[in-house]
Write a structure and sequence with these properties.
- It contains 12 helices and 11 strands.
- By secondary structure, the chain is α/β, with parallel strands linked by helices.
- The protein folds into 2 domains: 158 residues, Rossmann fold, CATH 3.40.50.1980; 86 residues, Rossmann fold (3-Layer(aba) Sandwich).
- Strands 6, 7, 8, 9, 10 and 11 form a 6-stranded mixed beta sheet that branches.
- A hairpin with a 5-residue loop joins strand 6 and strand 7.
- Helix 7 runs antiparallel to helix 8.
- The N and C termini lie far apart (58 Å).
């Protein structure tokens, strides 16, 4: 083949023909374009991971970002708009396709639900979709993998080494005892879906020396009541929903919980 013709065909061929095989956390083999310029984070954890490694490739944020938070972000990510959230309950396939991402990235718990979501999303949108493991021990490996995929190896290696240093530190002084502080981590619009101790979502609290408390159950999350939370008597309440802080101030029942009365509230 003449050299000029080869160069012309190379320029005209879509970048997806030059793809890399990636095995994600579900065990799926996904063909990812070598040249990636637009990445869509499927949910908030994926957005945080992507902002740390390659903020210039982000299409936007899948959840609201306050002005205070934007002030702490990299310039490339601080002005990005809000985009549809794939991990929600709405079918946003057409909205995602309109954004024309080269890659869709999900990050967090590797469960049958999220594995199926990654597979379905790729089938519906035609966009390569990866689910990466969000457990604490896997953070260094996940950072390096994403850095390789996005050609941000140097940045990813710096972050991975920092994560390894943090993970190597001894756990907080209360991690092996029943002493305070006791923490309840709650999700949902009503703040009544409580995370159990010893699960991926509460690993960070345990490493900080906090004792996670929740009603007995086999699921990582269980539905509770305000009365049940009052009985658990946590020193700290952590809500995943930002709106919960304002909501509990208007609900008399929440004032019966000691942590609420003492203002020991936070959000993830």
């Amino acid at each position: 083949m003449p050299a000029r013709l080869f160069i012309l065909l190379t320029l005209l061929w879509p970048a997806t023909l030059f793809a890399t095989e990636v095995n994600d956390a579900t065990g799926r083999t996904v063909f990812v374009p070598d040249r990636i310029t637009h990445v869509l984070p499927a949910g908030p954890p994926a957005a945080i991971l992507l902002e740390a490694v390659a903020p210039d490739l982000m299409l936007g944020w899948p959840s609201p970002v306050t002005e205070n938070v934007r002030a702490m972000l990299a310039p490339a990510a601080a002005t990005l708009p809000q985009i549809p959230r794939l991990t929600g309950h709405e079918d946003v396939t057409e909205k995602i396709q309109a954004l024309k991402p080269d890659l869709i990235l999900d990050y967090g718990t590797v469960s049958p639900r999220y594995a199926a979501l990654a597979q379905t999303t790729q089938q519906r949108t035609g966009v390569p979709t990866l689910l990466l493991d969000g457990s604490l021990p896997e953070i260094p490996r996940t950072l390096r993998l994403l850095g390789t995929i996005l050609h941000r190896e140097v940045r990813a290696e710096t972050l991975a080494q920092f994560a390894e240093a943090l993970l190597a530190m001894p756990a907080g002084p209360n991690a092996r005892t029943n002493s305070h502080p006791r923490v309840v981590y709650a999700r949902g619009a009503d703040g009544l879906s409580l995370a159990a101790a010893g699960t991926e979502v509460t690993d960070a609290f345990a490493r900080a020396g906090w004792r996670v408390v929740a009603p007995d159950g086999e699921s990582p999350f269980c539905q509770a009541s305000i009365e049940a939370i009052r009985t658990l008597d946590p020193d700290i309440l952590i809500f995943a929903e930002p709106a919960m802080r304002a909501a509990i101030g208007q609900a008399h029942a929440w004032q019966t919980v000691r942590a609420v009365r003492e203002g020991q509230l936070g959000r993830q």
